[in-house]
């Protein structure tokens, strides 16, 4: 039949293209190995004073943006960027596998965010708290860390901001992740009553209206993470967990109800933690912690330099300073890089009006 011949011809073309892709991907991998050898040789020449840098967040962001800009379709640009990120992740693993700390246990959205940022070839490490994730990177047990910082419906994650007050780490990237929550139970629990619903406090809040409408009389309990909630559901048929697809897959749970989040646009943003500052990528954000004396107009004096320079703020929040009663530290995020002349001028003005100014880092805007 003509249609069979047409299909056979298309399949031959696909096979030929696959062979070309295989050859090109391995050529790229060989280039990555050459890059690693050059960096290691340079480090050997410099002695202990220099350690090679294999992962360059700004370079990766530039490559992914360029790929999206050049993409002719029919694949959507985000899909193409994800494919290339996996290729880059695999090639980077040939240079040096990255260890990435995240808020665990396995199955959390933080793990999913780490996977989105670093690809499948990174070595993820689950940790029990946000503070521990910071510490693992600070103590060089892990190369990078991924922590939640804000949700589109529930606002900022205070523990993450508080950790920055004491940590020397830099923000080196951001990840935006659509959040879809399910009500998960074990296979044996699918046909028995639910005695308890568990989830991270933010997950419980993001599903509050749905829970009030469907399980108003069932007690709820906050856990350290959605992964921990899923683990409890796995062990107890009377416990239901609020968590996502990765948790269901990790713990062998089934979805009693799907997509129970109150907002269809529920999104969580994660920050990538590192030890070194990131050079400009061409489309960057920066974050600071700043505090001024408690006097009328204090906050206005901190914000006016940004307005005068025409720099857009993308986030502002406050946290107790923990050093003096009723004093606050402001977390301010804005467009631009500390290396930009206009941003340097703003920082100079802020130093004159503040009692604390801590640069948390400049980092590429999330490319995908």
Automatic annotation (TrEMBL):
Predominant subcellular localization, coarse grouping: cytoplasm
NCBIfam families the UniProt entry points to: CM_P2, PRK11898.1
ACT domain boundaries: 287-365
Gene Ontology annotations of biological process type: chorismate metabolic process; L-phenylalanine biosynthetic process
The name this protein goes by in its record: Bifunctional chorismate mutase/prephenate dehydratase
The entry's keywords: Amino-acid biosynthesis, Aromatic amino acid biosynthesis, Cytoplasm, Isomerase, Lyase, Multifunctional enzyme, Phenylalanine biosynthesis
InterPro entries from the UniProt entry: ACT-like_dom_sf, ACT_dom, Chor_mutase/pphenate_deHydtase, Chorismate_II_sf, CM_dom_sf, CM_II_prokaryot, G/b/e-P-prot_chorismate_mutase, Preph_deHydtase
Taxonomic path: Bacteria, Pseudomonadati, Pseudomonadota, Gammaproteobacteria, Cellvibrionales
Transmembrane regions: none
Single GO MF annotation: chorismate mutase activity
Organism domain of life: Bacteria
Family annotation (Pfam families): ACT, CM_2, PDT
Catalytic activity: prephenate + H(+) = 3-phenylpyruvate + CO2 + H2O; chorismate = prephenate
Pathway terms, separated by semicolons: Amino-acid biosynthesis; L-phenylalanine biosynthesis; phenylpyruvate from prephenate: step 1/1; Metabolic intermediate biosynthesis; prephenate biosynthesis; prephenate from chorismate: step 1/1
Location of the Chorismate mutase domain: 1-99
Cited function: Catalyzes the Claisen rearrangement of chorismate to prephenate and the decarboxylation/dehydration of prephenate to phenylpyruvate.
Subcellular location: Cytoplasm
EC number: 4.2.1.51, 5.4.99.5
Listed GO CC annotations: cytoplasm
Site (Essential for prephenate dehydratase activity): 268
Prephenate dehydratase domain location: 99-275
């Amino acid at each position: 039949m003509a249609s069979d011949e047409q299909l056979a011809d298309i399949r031959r073309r696909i096979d030929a293209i696959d062979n070309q892709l295989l050859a090109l991907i391995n050529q790229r991998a060989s280039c990555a190995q050459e890059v690693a050898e050059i960096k290691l040789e340079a480090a050997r020449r410099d002695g202990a004073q220099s350690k090679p840098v294999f992962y360059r967040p700004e370079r990766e962001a530039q490559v992914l943006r360029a790929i999206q800009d050049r993409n002719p379709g029919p694949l959507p640009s985000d899909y193409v960027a994800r494919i290339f990120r996996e290729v880059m992740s695999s090639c980077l693993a040939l240079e040096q596998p990255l260890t990435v700390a995240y808020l665990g246990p396995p199955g959390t959205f933080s793990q999913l965010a780490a996977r989105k940022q670093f690809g499948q070839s990174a070595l993820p490490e689950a940790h029990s708290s946000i503070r521990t994730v910071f510490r693992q990177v600070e103590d060089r047990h892990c190369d990078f860390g991924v922590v939640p910082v804000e949700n589109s419906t529930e606002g900022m994650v205070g523990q993450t901001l508080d950790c920055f007050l004491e940590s020397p780490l830099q923000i080196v990237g951001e990840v935006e992740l659509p959040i879809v929550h399910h009500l998960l139970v074990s296979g044996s629990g699918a046909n028995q009553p639910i005695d308890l619903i568990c989830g991270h406090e933010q997950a419980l809040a993001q599903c509050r209206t749905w829970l009030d409408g469907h399980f108003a009389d069932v007690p709820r309990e906050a856990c350290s993470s959605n992964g921990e909630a899923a683990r409890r559901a796995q062990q107890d048929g009377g416990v239901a967990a609020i968590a996502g697809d990765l948790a269901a897959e990790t713990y062998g749970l089934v979805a009693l109800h799907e997509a129970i989040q109150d907002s269809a646009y529920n999104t969580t943003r994660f920050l990538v933690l590192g030890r070194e500052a990131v050079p400009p990528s061409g489309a960057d954000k920066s974050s600071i912690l700043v505090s001024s004396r408690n006097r009328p107009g204090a906050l206005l004096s901190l914000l006016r330099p940004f307005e005068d320079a025409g720099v857009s703020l993308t986030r502002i929040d406050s946290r107790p300073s923990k050093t003096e009663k009723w004093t606050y530290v402001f977390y301010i995020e804005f467009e631009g890089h500390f290396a930009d002349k206009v941003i340097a001028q703003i920082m100079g003005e802020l130093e004159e009006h503040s009692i604390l100014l801590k640069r948390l880092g400049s980092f590429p805007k999330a490319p995908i």
